[in-house]
Amino acid sequence: MIPYEELVRGCLARGVMPAVVPQLKTITLGGAVAGVGIESSSHRHGLVHDTMLELEVLLGDGRIVTATPDNEHAGLFFGFPNSYGTLGYALRVKAKTIPVKPYVRLEHRGFSSADEYFRALDVRLRAGDFDFIDGTIFGPGRFFLTLGRFSDTAPYTSDYTFEKIYYRSITERREDYLTIHDYLWRWDTDWFWCSKNVFAQQPLIRKLYGRKRLGSRTYTKIMRWNSRFGATKKLERVLGLHSESVIQDVDIPLGRAAEFFSFYEKEIGLWPQWVCPIGFAGMGSFTLYPRRDEWYVNFGFWDVKRTREARPRGHFNRLIEERVAALGGIKSLYSESYYPEDEFYRHYGGGAYDALKRKYDPGGAFPRLYEKCVLKH
To answer: Which of 42, 155, 234, 323 has the greatest CB tally within 10 Å of its CB?
Structure first.
């Protein structure tokens, strides 16, 4: 349950960082393993669960087992990622770290077409000459790759923890320098760009929040309050709008990324959109998050789709799920999910998941994956 904010603090004091640090300070290590964690070092190190070496798990009957890639609980080791607490809870995780330098030098490179953009990404991935790679798409014709390298020195450092907003700098600057600490948390201050939904990007309101309250911890509390009391829903009814929450992280093979973008531009069109490449760490195949040994591209988009026309429940999310499957991709299950049960288990474990449940949760202490992630029980 240690949040990455504390984990990073302890690691940086020793000259290292977790090999993959998810973007928000409040994400926990166990949560990133049981779910799916990603960041701009993923092109080298894969997802968070690709970096784990050993896992201690509390099972539903009270037993505690240690799982490694090659012991008697290897099935649980490879089945735990993306299981969302339906097989057990992580008590201890042993995971890889990497050495750091004090600063990160960033380059923001702009492109005008999806084909050009993903070709350039492919070149950079194959060259392997940057420590960090991610991207931001601000809309059709506005594609940016952000390339980062560790640096021992910096002529200056930018501060995006209060009045300046990081994602806006991507289109404004060709080069930038951040401390390694501020680089790892560059997205947290504005929850990528989602702080706009709580008016935190308005200069006066931003000052009222204050530096200490800008960040994912505050925004999560506000959005939970809104979800509980339905303030936004009431306003939408007054305005005659129909809305659907589209909260998704989907992983698409690099060779088909331009196809996914074309679909997204036409059918969804929520901007900005985050892009993060994922490498193949060679650990093995994870039962509930299978990927082939090739480059993938994560597309992250988190907003509300509003229309004047009423649509069936989950309309836009189902379009996304169907297109991801057609392109050979897979998505994180923290996302909004609307799969029919038989389709869900074709993508997420099927009979292999049933076998894990029988072995590690025979008494049914925990819900099944479909119940927890789709039915939300």
So the answer is: 42
